[in-house]
Structures are given as C-alpha cells and as structure tokens.
Amino acid sequence: MQSSQGEARKPLFYDPTERRIRSFVTRAGRLSEAQAKAIELLGPKFMLPYQKDHLDFDIVFGRQAPTIFEIGFGMGETSAKISSLMPEKNFIGVEVHTPGVGNLLKLTEAAGLQNQRVIQHDAYEVLINMIAPASLAGVHVFFPDPWHKARHNKRRLIQGPLVALLASRLQTGAYIHCATDWEEYAVQMLEVLSNEPSLKNTADGYAPRPEYRPVTKFENRGLKLGHGVWDLVFEKR
Predict the structure, then answer these.
(1) Residue range 69-125, pLDDT digits in tens
(2) Which residues are annotated as a binding site for substrate?
(3) 151: number of Cβ within 10 Å
C-alpha cells in the first residue's frame, strides 16, 4: 500500500519471534542516475556510517542544537521541507530504501541545508547503538506502512517495545510525533503511546497537525476525497 505521501514503503516492523523490531532487507530499488550521483558525491558529506558507538551530535553537526530523529523518510521531500523550516535544529533521518536516501541527499544539497544527516541502516540498531539515552529533542514517524490486513497487524512499527526504546532516547520535555492516514492504525498508535508510562499526550486524543509538518500533495489529494489523517504528539515526562 502507498501512504498519503505516495511512496511505497519497505516498513520496519516488530518481529515477535525475536522480540525486537526488524526491518526488511535493504533492496536497491530503481535508482536514478541523479540519486546514484547524489550518494556518490554527497554521501561523504551528509551520510553517517553505521557504528556501534554513540554519536556526538555536536561533532556531527559542528554545533550545539536540539536533534530530531526521523524513522523512514521515504523519498525525503517532507524531511527536507521540515529541515529548511527549522534551521535551528539538527535532523537525522534513517531509511533503508536506497533511492530515498539518494533523493534526500539531492534535496539537501539543492536547498543548501546544513542541518540534515542521513543513515541508511536498520533504525532499531541505530537507536540501540548510535543514539545515547536522553539525547534527542524529538522523534518523527510519518505514515509508516499500516499493514492493514489483520493478520499483518503484528508487523506494524508503532508497538510497545519500539515506543519504550524511543522514549528512553528522549530528553525530558522532548516529543514523539507520529502521523498516519489509516484510522485503525491511528487507534492502535494512540493506545500504544498512551500505555508508555514515560510519555504524556499533548492533546485530548489526536493532535492538530503541527505547522512544521507540511501537507504533501498526496495527502492533500486524500483529504479532498474525504480521507482522514491523524497526528499524535506525545511528550517525555
């Protein structure tokens, strides 16, 4: 299924057999010449290699600033827009899809962004090994695959184990912002986030769309057809 962002995702999901979040094996997909060139030329500047040591954000970005972590940025249009709207913050996006990585690198360079970095790896392993506890100012998870068939619901990304891990990486007062265009998944997200004791809802149920999250053309098309979009914003106690 495609999300409102119009991008077919290789989603992360929780694997109960291993009691952890798994991601699909990275596939190259259809890589355009421009995307391949961006990875070759811009990768050394904007990509962070996977490592089993915590990142020092001050060194990575060359400054002290709040850092936002995004899981699954797809083709990167929304990520680039948010980074450009908030130059005072640092952004690290994690994605396994190679064309998406190349596209965000291309957009980052075109917009002259200095506050965007990219990691191409399993987000769970990145969180465990590269992100120190209580180090993030925020987390974005926009339109993850809804796995809309009931028998596949267990593969959804937003489940208790990942939410607990994300919460452990947040500073006090930091936030998790999730968005979905699948109502049944929104209900599950609300339940899972509400059950994490270290988080509190910033709204009475679903939140208004924060101004920093742009409405994509695919989302806008869905809204015109009467399709809903649900945002959830929870804060670290």
Answers:
(1) 999 999 999 999 999 999 999 999 999 999 999 999 999 999 999 999 999 999 999
(2) 149, 181, 216-219
(3) 7
CA dist 72 and 157 (Å) reads 10
Q: What tokens were used for 106?
A: 């291309």
Helix boundaries (H) for 62-201: 77-85, 98-110, 123-130, 160-169, 183-194
The domains located in the chain, with CATH, are 13-236 (3.40.50.150)
- pLDDT tens digits for 145-194? 988 777 767 889 999 999 999 999 999 999 999 999 999 999 999 999 99
Cα–Cα distance measured from residue 144 to residue 11, given in angstroms and rounded to the nearest whole number: 6
CA 116 to chain centre: 13
Alpha-carbon Rg for the chain, nearest whole angstrom, is 17
Residue pair 11/147 in contact (Cβ under 8 Å)? The answer is yes
Binding-site positions for S-adenosyl-L-methionine: 70, 95, 122, 145
User: Among all residues, which ones are annotated catalytic?
Assistant: 145
User: Quick count: other Cβ atoms within 10 Å of Cβ 66?
Assistant: 15
The DSSP H or E segment spanning 15 is strand 12-15
